[in-house]
Amino acid sequence: MSQKIRLCMLLAALATTALPTDAPIALAKTRAPADSAQGAKLIALTFDDGPKPYVLMGTRSGNGVSSQSLLNLLDQQKVKATFFVMGWRLSKNADAKCRHDDGGVCREAAEEEHRRGHEIENHTYGHGNFRVMVKRYGEEWVLNDIDRASTIIESITSVKPIYLRPPDWTIWPEIQKKIEARGYHVMTKSRDVAPALRDVDSEDYFCAGRDVSKCPKPSDYDYVLRNIAQRERQSVEQHILVFHELPQSVELLSRLIPELKQRGYSFVTLREYMAEVARPSGGTR
Q: What CATH number has the domain bearing residue 49?
């Protein structure tokens, strides 16, 4: 056998033995770490301005507007969400107005949210703009309005809310420090916080009512996906999505949730989200 033939046979043998060891290494590099907090693709799905019984339960409003059931959709998709509720809606004094406007008792709808395992957090009691309320009544009134909402929420959940989303995200450093001193984490869209801890506004409220001229084009569904894609290009794969209890949003989410799951995202409550995302920096509060 010539030296040239023996050299060819040796090279072939080396190539054959190299393949099994190279292949697993390549796979390991492309596989995402399943249990890594920093590598996890997480979404905290949140809702403001409720509870609204006709949207949650899938009935009709006092004006005859129908909706799919948001709670049933979340059950079907095995998603636990976080609801930022207005405290006044949970008062017995609100029962008549809730029946007239929203087709049911708001307090009972909140009880159903809790029964199905969703998180309930604070969107203030009266939903007044902080700047307007401070000018009219003073800072202490605003702080007490927040605590008043927490008290009535805790009467339903037996858990004190720790997250506050100000109406319209109106906040400034002085009042924020005083709110945080009472034990709350203030949700914000501000660029002063890390992207993963920043609210992602769906702008679904522009797509409700008679004037929908400001509704994102070509659709709110596309707008949310574009926002997420833009954040992903910045290596952000954790998102706090903000919606409202609106019939249009339930329909949107019936398509959005499966799409995001297909893209590898997991849905968690806000407390679970913060426990994972804020952990590397030792917390956000």
A: 3.20.20.370
